[in-house]
Amino acid sequence: MPIITINNGPLEYLAAEGIAVPHCFTTRVGGVSQGHLASLNIGVHRGDDPENVAENYRRLGEALGFSHLVLTRQTHSDIIRTVDLSDADKGLTQDAWPECDGLITNTPGLALAVFTADCTPILLHDPVTGAVGAVHAGWRGTAADIAGKAVRAMEAEFGCDPANICAAIGPNIGQ
Fold it and tell me: 112, 24, 132, 115: which is closest to 70 by C-alpha?
């Protein structure tokens, strides 16, 4: 499925044409971070001012329409977590985030975030049930079938039919 560039105010991000819910693969354009982290840094462990990171997330939320967010403490595993509003808005302290490399939910307005660099982001959406998933697929997770496990978890948790689930593979190994 094609990946397109979207400009929304000062933000520039990428989106998959076949995923019908708000989503993005971030770029570095449109944030407030400075120096080597300019401009849309959303990584909290890179030495950026936490206020800048919070503002960058606020801008993303405004652009995409999400009001709640779940972040992950990734371990290059095949762990999938089902999350809801009780898991959201834990702040920018990694210790508060669930340890996993994949998140699934059927809670409207709840954004799921995974971090990638040379690993691959995979977004999942079932337009019938409204369930979504976000997967960080490094080589270990990929070898352990993390994407397949996320689909099976969506099937078990939300009654998704795998045939209905749309998947988008996001950019990796670069900006």
Answer: 112
Tokens of 42: 């959303």
**What does each C-alpha distance from 98 to 36, 88, 107 come to in angstroms?**
28, 10, 17
The model's pLDDT over 108-155, given as tens digits with 9 standing for 90+, comes to 999 999 999 889 999 999 999 999 999 999 999 999 999 999 999 999
Alpha-carbon distance of 29 to 26, in angstroms, equals 8
- Ramachandran category for residue 88: left, alpha or beta (phi over 0 → left; psi -120 to 50 → alpha): beta
The pTM of the full predicted model, rounded to 2 decimals, is 0.94
For 70-91, the pLDDT digits (tens) are 999 999 999 999 999 999 988 8
Mean pLDDT across 45-58: 93
Query: Is the CB of residue 66 less than 8 Å from the CB of residue 109?
Result: yes
Q: 25 has which bridge partners? A: 14
Count other C-beta atoms under 10 Å from residue 2's C-beta: 8
How far is residue 5 CA from its own chain's centroid? 17
Q: Which residues contact 159 (CB under 8 A, 6 or more apart)?
A: 129
Kindly tell me if the per-residue pLDDT of 174 is higher than 80: no
